[in-house]
């Protein structure tokens, strides 16, 4: 519901969930606390995806596909807009740490020749999340694995070595 309407009220969220708004307020003191719990759950899922992809030790092509597939699944499970909580220091630190892990992986992918070395790392680290987001939303008929095939192919053909 928050993916469709980020400004949805607690009453609307409770109604959609089939509970009374007081039930929601017993668990979450405010809308901000509810949003923080949602973002925390999403970042937990992203961390598990990064861990399962084994970005540091798996062969880069394998790790890339695993990571993309896992993140597409996370995006489909938790389709919430994350920009609202970037001001929260704890969330920002966690987000930055995860971005750092992926950037380290992309650096390794470049060093090992999977990605072009003549493009800035920022290009790859900006493009990959956008492709995963697009696949999550625009390829709903594909499994996460098949959508990952499309993303990885698009990513490598655009950023792969010439």
Number of strands: 0
Number of helices: 7
Class by SSE composition: mainly alpha
Strand residue percentage:
under 5%
Distance between the termini: 43 Å
Gyration radius, rounded: 18 Å
Global morphology: elongated
Q: What value does the average pLDDT take?
A: 88
Protein described:
Helix content is 70%, strand content 0%. It has 162 residues and is mainly α. The relative contact order is 0.12. The mean pLDDT is 88.
List keywords for this structure.
elongated, single chain
Describe the SSE topology.
Elements: H1 10-17, H2 21-27, H3 31-53, H4 60-77, H5 89-111, H6 121-138, H7 144-159
Helix pairs in contact: 1-2, 3-4, 3-5, 4-6, 4-7, 5-6, 6-7
Q: In summary, what is this structure?
A:
The chain is 70% helix and 0% strand. It has 162 residues and is an all-alpha fold. The mean pLDDT is 88.
């Amino acid at each position: 519901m928050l993916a469709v309407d980020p400004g949805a009220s607690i009453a609307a969220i409770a109604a959609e969930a089939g509970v009374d708004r007081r039930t929601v307020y017993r668990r979450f003191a405010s809308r901000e606390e509810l949003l923080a719990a949602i973002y925390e759950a999403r970042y937990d899922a992203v961390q598990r995806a990064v861990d399962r992809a084994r970005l540091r030790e798996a062969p880069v092509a394998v790790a890339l596909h695993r990571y993309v597939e896992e993140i597409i699944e996370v995006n489909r499970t938790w389709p919430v807009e994350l920009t609202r909580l970037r001001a929260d220091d704890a969330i920002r630190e966690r987000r930055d740490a995860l971005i750092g892990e992926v950037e380290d992986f992309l650096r390794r992918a470049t060093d090992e020749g999977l990605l072009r070395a003549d493009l800035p790392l920022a290009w790859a680290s900006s493009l990959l999340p956008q492709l995963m987001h697009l696949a999550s939303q625009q390829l709903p008929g594909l499994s996460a694995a098949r959508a990952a095939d499309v993303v990885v192919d698009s990513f490598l053909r655009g950023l792969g070595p010439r």
